[in-house]
Amino acid sequence: MRFFFSTAVIIMAFAVLVGCAHKGGLPIAQAEELRTPAYDQQARNQNAAQANRQLYKGIYDIRTVSEVRIQDSGQISWQEKGVSLFAAMVQTDQKGAASEIGAITVSKGDHRYPIQVDQRHTAISAVSLSADQQYLAIHLKHSNGHRLVIVNMKTGGYYPLNDYLSRNGRGTVDTIHAYQWAPGGNQLALAYGDNTRSSVALYQTDQKMLLDIPTSVVYEDTLVVVWHKNGKEFDFVSAGEENVYVLHRYTRSKNQVRKVKEIGGQEVAILQAINPTYAK
What we know:
- The protein has helices at 2-24, 28-35, 38-59, 161-167, 265-274, and strands at 69-70, 75-80, 83-91, 99-108, 111-115, 123-129, 135-142, 145-152, 158-160, 175-181, 187-193, 198-204, 209-212, 221-227, 233-239, 245-251, 256-263.
- It is of the alpha+beta class.
- It has 2 domains: 2-50, no CATH class; 51-274, Neuraminidase (6 Propeller), CATH 2.120.10.
- A 5-stranded antiparallel β-sheet has the order 1-2-3-4-5, with no helix packed on it. The chain has a 4-stranded antiparallel β-sheet with strand order 6-7-8-9. A 4-stranded antiparallel β-sheet has the order 10-11-12-13, with no helix packed on it.
């Protein structure tokens, strides 16, 4: 009798435990998910990032852009395809706590072109040549954003694109958010504006002509602009509230913009990495 009683107690206890697990416990699939090691999710994220990186390499015009080098002495240098840039950081206070870019010199062969800008700049973010090597773009950081200085490599003439756009009906252009030279020729795809708005456009450097792309959306910020290899389209990433990033595509033949998809911060970083001329 004692044996049957003990067996019954065990069976009842087991039934209670199973019932509790069913009523208050986690579903099997959810429990399994919680038991999945964190590194498995990390591996999936890495695989997805690698897949996106390979996809982007097949679509976009990815070129090697020389880095701007800064020495401990404050000397700044850049060199690519026979074109060189030199500048120096100049201290602006006695304690040496603040500094700005001094005179800039661009050289090609026997030609030396001094570049003087009338606004204080704290860094040279990027320097890049057009595909036909006729123009040089110098991206300068200042207190309100970035200025883009265009240098004609034949004549040595230069001008800040921000100022040119402001004088030609585009309002106050405090910053060039992002830009990239086209795969051929000397067209620029760029985003310009201030800290609250960003307009995306095509700039014909030879004609000094700006074509604003048609859109009903007011972009708050544009993080990156990148051309397709075929030179017929370029993509750009806009940023809005709550870190929502949207990938857009502009097609030149149709003069049309369409939303491609929303993307995450990891994809934004990949796009910025393959186009190192973005605003830093």
